[in-house]
Amino acid sequence: MEPQRPSRTAWGAARHRAMHQIVEGGRIFRDPLAVAILGGVGEAEDEGLVFEKDDEPGAKMLRFFIAARSAHAEAKLAEAVERRGASQLVVLGAGFDTFACRNPFGDALRVFEVDHPATQAWKRERLAAMEIEPPRWPTFAGVDFERESFAEALVRAGFDPQRRSFVFWLGVSMYLSPAAIDATLAAVAGWPGGGEIVFDYAEPQHDGMSEQGKAARAALQARVAAVGEPMIGWLEPEALHARLAALGYRAVEDLAGIDLAERFLGPEIAAAARAARAAGQRRGGGHVLFART
Ligand SMILES: C[S@@+](CC[C@H](N)C(=O)[O-])C[C@H]1O[C@@H](n2cnc3c(N)ncnc32)[C@H](O)[C@@H]1O
Hints:
Number of domains: 1
Mean pLDDT: 90
Structural class: alpha/beta
CATH topology: Rossmann fold
CATH architecture: 3-Layer(aba) Sandwich
Order of helices and strands: HHEHEHEHEHEHHEHHE
Bound molecules: S-adenosylmethionine
Shape: globular
Strand content: 5-15%
Number of helices: 10
Distance between the termini: 30 Å
């Protein structure tokens, strides 16, 4: 991304969550702050949530994917806190994620947000405008993942690697270089207190993708490249799983798009997803993966 500018894709992902509250009533992922963090419903871009026709190919499926990945991440986090004693959450490339302000675990879960400094400055403005009190703010660490170690920045911000920790890394890997992706996975695996991570990743285009999926992917790639955030971080599932094992991750669950649809999108879409699978579409291009050491 461009160093001096806050992330436009962060605004885009937040807009999908907000639209999901309005259009689907938060059926997949309920976030009572999703609209507010964008400034409510406004007249112009950057002044709130503008209603426009979501007619890009795959806009609805992308909205569902973004809602489902957050729902899945928050469910996995709850499991880690309640069953395995995780007491720190790191939101990597947090954008306008609102979990910190909704944290149901209170003092039992400290929340850190790591993001590009320019995006983080924009987030702080939004939180101040929402009049969210600083105790409900996360602890911020400003980092460029391509240039510096986020793990060191976290420790400087008060993170304790000896405590069991959970990471949300949503909508970020596809914007990073292979080296920055690997460094992130290695850093979480290296925490002595234990690390758990939920992240989504994009496969390179493959023959098992439908024509509709390919068109949606091409439209998304063109859109994000046009705002200076090209997708560069493609991951092959087999190679990724081998790398996770080598890094010491024990439990790994990888939900491809169809699995996610079956789990989160209700019987109608699940049936369509199964039909697509039966017709030979092995998997889509997007995955949500959970791994823990
Ligand atoms: C598509 S947004 C996702 C935001 C949020 N996780 C969500 O799901 O709404 C990508 C995020 O990654 C961050 N990001 C991308 N490249 C980065 C880099 N090199 N260093 C730090 N942050 C980066 C952006 O600032 C932005 O917040």
